[in-house]
Amino acid sequence: MNYAIIEGMKIQPEERPQNIQEWVALLQVRPQNITSQMPQVFGKIYTQMSTYIPGVKRNISQNSLKSSYIGKANGLFIVAGILIFFLVVVYIFFPNLNFSRNSRPSIDKKIDYTALENLLSSYQFKEADEETLRILLSLVGGEKQYWFDLEDIKNIPCKDLDKINQLWVNYSNGKFGFSIQKQIWIELGSKIGIFDVAIADIFIKQVGWGEKYKRYKNITYKISASYGHIPFRATTHVRNFGVPYIAEKLAKCNM
Predict the structure, then answer these.
(1) Where are the domains of the chain?
(2) Average pLDDT, the chain
(3) Is the pLDDT of residue 65 over 90?
(4) Of 166, 139, 170, 145, which Cα lies nearest the Cα of 250?
(5) Distance (Å) of CA 72 to CA 76, 78, 150, 175, 254
(6) For the packed helices 62-93 and 31-52, what is the interaxial angle rounded to 10 degrees?
(7) How far apart are CA 116 and CA 17, in angstroms?
(8) How far apart are CA 57 and CA 169, in angstroms?
(9) Which residues of 12-50 are buried (b: 16+ CB within 10 A; e: fewer)?
(10) How far apart are CA 149 and CA 236, in angstroms?
(11) Which whole number is the average pLDDT over 78-104?
């Protein structure tokens, strides 16, 4: 539990657990480890009670105390397991549910793309990735939240999304950009606008982001990176996983 809390409090968002599967992996508890330590705990409790409470030996047995606490512990594990299973089902089969807040309306802004173009033309891809995220968040009024929900993606103006994508594609010689990620997603056999856990794992491996529970550990801001490797931040700062939803937006914008 402590390890899960520490991981969730990391400063860089991409270093935190990105989805429910990763949280489940961090929160895995082994009941046998707890129950194996219970005899020592119950022994100490029983000793203290025998010392300070007269007659406790006649009314309470160590075995009955141990059995009571083990039963309660097992019950808690069952309840926790059911809750985690329910969350995973909701996460997988109902990705469009939004329990967080009302969506932010799109904001008609005139964006200066000079900084992004200069960064891309000089192959400063990490800074360009950060600038891309900043621009997109500003377009939906989400600068303070530092993340998108699915409605936010729908509200990104097509002209701005097209401009950002074209800059990435042009200055990477066709290697990077949202449209490249869209193409890879479709070629892997999935549909745009639909989140597929298995396809997401394959996609993450193919573009070089990592593998399953070691996701987002291999981000390389170099022109030699795999096709579709970046933009990274804007794609992963979406609830669930942004690739299929950004791809859907691209299709609606005829991109």
Answers:
(1) 2-93, 114-252
(2) 76
(3) no
(4) 166
(5) 6, 10, 41, 56, 58
(6) 150
(7) 28
(8) 78
(9) eeeeebbbbbbbbebeeeeeeeeeeeeeeebeeebeeee
(10) 11
(11) 57
pLDDT at residue 82, as a whole number? 75
Pick from 227, 230, 233: which is nearest to 125 by CA? 230
Express each pLDDT in 15-49 by its tens digit.
556 556 565 555 554 444 444 555 554 565 556 55
pLDDT at 173: 96
CA distance 82 to 249: 35
pLDDT of 47: 60
Residue count of the chain: 255
DSSP output for the chain: -HHHHHHHT-SSGGGS--SHHHHHHHT---HHHHHHHHHHHHHHHHHHHHHHSTTHHHH--HHHHHHHHHHHHHHHHHHHHHHHHHHHHHHHH-TT---S-PPPPP-------HHHHHHHHTT-HHHHHHHHHHHHHHHTT-TTT--B-HHHHHHS-HHHHHHHHHHHHHHTTTSSSHHHHHHHHHHTT--TT---HHHHHHHHHHTTS--GGGTTS----STTSPTT----HHHHSBSS-SHHHHHHHHHHTT-
Beta-carbon-side half-sphere exposure of residue 6 (alpha carbons within 13 Å)? 3
Encoded tokens for 93: 């089969």
Q: Which residue matches tokens 């129950």?
A: 35
Nearest 5°: phi and psi at 18? -95, -15
Find, among 170, 196, 179, 199, the residue nearest to 95 by Cα.
196
Q: What angle do CA 189, 16, 166 make, to 5 degrees?
A: 50
pTM of the model: 0.60
